[in-house]
Automatic annotation (TrEMBL):
Species for this entry: Triticum turgidum subsp. durum (Durum wheat)
Compartments where located: Cell membrane; Membrane
Keyword Cell membrane: yes
Protein name in the entry: non-specific serine/threonine protein kinase
Catalytic activity as recorded in UniProt: L-threonyl-[protein] + ATP = O-phospho-L-threonyl-[protein] + ADP + H(+); L-seryl-[protein] + ATP = O-phospho-L-seryl-[protein] + ADP + H(+)
Record Pfam families: LRR_1 (PF00560), LRR_8 (PF13855), Pkinase (PF00069)
Cellular compartments per GO CC: plasma membrane
Signal peptide: none
InterPro entries named among the record's database cross-references: Kinase-like_dom_sf, Leu-rich_rpt, Leu-rich_rpt_typical-subtyp, LRR_dom_sf, Prot_kinase_dom, Protein_kinase_ATP_BS, Ser_Thr_Kinases_DiverseReg, Tyr_kinase_AS
């Protein structure tokens, strides 16, 4: 990995054919340090620290087929001269600081197959000329501030993946989207301001595997045509205004309620959803009958109600007032005692009814609030989405939470208690000041301060905590959401495993069937085809976290297939986070062990993964220089694959 400014001499290398400088720490102004390269076919500069604007000179590189400038600090607008790159097939400008509108001229690139402009500050609307991108297979403009209507013209394209989520699009979802017959990988329109009804035409997307319509304002019912989407593995329509029955399809009938809740009034044979007592047709017939019987019913009903009122009045006179108050409180909410006190009102008051200004973290399963109680104690309150638990299985939720509150292990955040309320469901934790591992890795200064010694100790602490849950708790507990966001660090960088909102108690006499839980990028692959959660799911997530800890970022590129790509070798030293100081020879030996362990945890077969106890034992053993047959500087990532650490320990 290289760092520092780009050599000035590069500007004069006009005969360049390929330029690969990706995944380094290179700095400099991209508009000044690069020249005109008329023979250049590929320019890949992603994952550096390049700044400045995209130079208009880029238009002179007319032979370019691949242009990747993603994951830098590039500012300004997308120059219209990019339209001169008529041979361009891949254009990736994502994860920069680009602003302005998407230039319509970009739509003249007829050979473009992949376009990614996500995670910028682009505004305006989608150009209607987008249909001219006749060969485009993947379009990702998510994570911007784009607005306006979604153009019908999108439906005329050959897209296999479409991501327009996390923008400000409004209006309805065009029926024409259903004409994207080749759409297979993903359709994500979540987190916009879309409204209207869901098009029946979406049911024509028989190849689609992932559909996310959540966090919009869609109304009406889920189209019955969704039952025809036979390839669908994930559907999310949560946080809308939908009502009516969930269509009868194998996928939908065995789905998690979190895919559907909250909504206005969905029903179906799913845990967490109310049953559908009648179809619209039978409801209409019943309405006619009720219309005829209504006068009779009203007269009889009035008499019955009057009698009941009299009985209630007489009964209340004899009822113990204290019993009435107690029963009423029990109906309103059920709060597990927080250090012997009823903390519900205190927490509501401390967060001003969960005002956003108290949010210190957000995840797929809820938001975390900082609350200072009346006695001055500061706690973290995880407010769960009502869909995280089976709403009709309140007894199981309470019993599991009570078990979790008994956990006392030094690397697990202390859970004081929980609340189960018709309006709120939340967990109360000890407040850890420094924040999450994810947040620290995103902070340049803190990531540098998190040196290799601290990172090695951190991985050991996390392994010990998960091992405790799996092997020392009775019955065993699986966390189900081990991520860098759920690993908290105090001011001395001591690690604590947090967030048991999705945890499950393993019961020997149970199938341990569970709705899919976890965070995308950390979920074990077997959960895509089975709903049986095991300890090995946590082991996989731990492997992801260890790689993230060593790389300084989520190992997304490795998990997407580069690990199994035997055509090229990946040097371990090249993927390490460059922000900490260079590891010592002793630390290099430990890092080699961590790499092997992480890859062992990421085995596709659950049986091939170690247990967390074995993982922890591997980390606490003192490795010697003889245990590493290859010098760290020459260690190739693929050499650590398919190594059974159990046979080495």
């Amino acid at each position: 990995m290289f760092s520092g400014p780009i050599p000035r001499s590069l500007k004069t290398c006009t005969s360049l054919v390929r330029l690969h400088l990706e995944s380094n720490q290179l700095t400099g102004d991209i508009s000044q340090h690069f020249g005109v390269y008329p023979q250049l076919i590929k320019m890949i500069l992603k994952s550096n620290r390049l700044s400045g604007h995209i130079s208009p000179n880029i238009g002179a590189c007319t032979q370019l087929t691949v242009l990747r400038l993603a994951q830098n600090m590039i500012t300004g607008s997308i120059p219209a001269v990019i339209s001169k790159l008529s041979k361009l097939e891949q254009l990736r400008l994502d994860s920069n600081h680009l602003s302005g509108e998407i230039p319509p001229e970009i739509c003249t690139l007829a050979n473009l197959y992949s376009l990614n402009l996500s995670s910028n500050q682009l505004s305006g609307s989608i150009p209607t000329q987008v249909e001219k991108l006749s060969n485009l297979g993947s379009l990702d403009i998510s994570g911007n501030i784009l607005s306006g209507l979604i153009p019908e013209e999108l439906g005329t394209m050959k897209l296999q993946s479409l991501k327009i989520n996390n923008n400000n699009f409004s209006g309805s979802l065009p029926d024409a989207i259903g004409n994207l017959a080749g759409l297979q990988t993903m359709l994500d329109v979540s987190n916009n301001n879309l409204s209207g009804v869901l098009p029946q035409q979406l049911g024509k997307l028989e190849m689609l595997e992932f559909l996310n319509l959540s966090h919009n304002q869609f109304g009406g019912s889920i189209p019955s045509s969704f039952a025809s989407m036979v390839s669908l593995s994930t559907l999310d329509v949560s946080y809308n205004n939908l009502e009516g029955p969930v269509p009868t399809a194998p996928l939908l009938q065995n789905a998690s309620a979190s895919w559907f809740l909250p909504n206005k009034g969905l029903c179906g044979n799913l845990s967490g959803l109310p049953p559908c007592y009648s179809t619209p047709a039978t409801a209409h017939k019943r309405g006619k009958i009720l219309g005829l019987l209504l006068p009779i019913v009203l007269v009889m009903g009035f008499g019955i109600v009057a009698a009941i009122v009299v009985i209630i009045i007489l009964t209340r006179k004899k009822r113990n007032p204290q019993e009435s108050v107690t029963a009423e409180a029990r109906d309103l909410f059920s709060v597990w005692n927080f250090d012997g006190r009823l903390a519900f009102d205190d927490i509501i008051r401390a967060t001003e009814d969960f005002d956003d200004k108290y949010i210190i973290g957000t995840g797929g399963y809820g938001k975390v609030y900082k609350a200072q109680l009346q006695d001055g104690q500061v706690v973290a309150v995880k407010k769960l989405h009502r869909t995280e638990e089976e709403l009709d299985d309140e007894r199981r939720f309470r019993s599991e939470m009570e078990i979790l509150t008994q956990i006392r292990q030094r690397s697990i955040v202390k859970m004081y208690g929980f609340c189960s309320h018709p309006t709120y469901k939340f967990l109360v934790y000890d407040y850890i000041q420094q924040g999450s591992l994810h947040g620290i890795l995103e902070n340049q200064g803190l990531a540098k301060e998190l040196d290799w010694k601290k990172r090695i100790a951190l991985a050991t602490d996390v392994a010990q905590a998960i091992s405790y849950l799996h092997h020392e708790c009775s019955p065993p507990i699986i966390h189900r959401d081990i991520t860098s966001n759920n690993i908290l660090l105090d001011t001395s960088f001591k690690a604590f495993v947090s967030d048991f909102g999705t945890a499950r108690i393993l019961k020997p006499d149970s199938s341990n069937w569970s709705a899919l839980a976890g965070t995308y990028g950390y979920i074990a692959p077997e959960l895509s085809y089975t709903s049986v959660a095991t300890e090995k799911c946590d082991v996989y997530s731990f492997g992801v976290v260890v790689l993230e800890l060593l790389m300084g970022k989520h190992p997304r590129d490795l998990l997407d297939g580069n690990l199994s790509n035997s055509e090229h070798s990946i040097m371990v030293k090249d993927i390490l986070d460059q922000r900490p100081t260079t590891p010592t020879s002793t630390e290099e030996i430990s890092l080699a062990v961590h790499i092997k362990l992480a890859l062992s945890c990421l085995e596709s077969s659950p049986q091939a993964r170690p247990t967390m106890r074995e993982a922890y034992q591997t980390l606490i053993q003192q490795p010697s220089s003889s245990s590493c047959s290859v010098p760290f500087s020459a260690l190739i990532l693929q050499q650590g694959m398919h190594v059974d650490i159990r046979s080495e320990s």
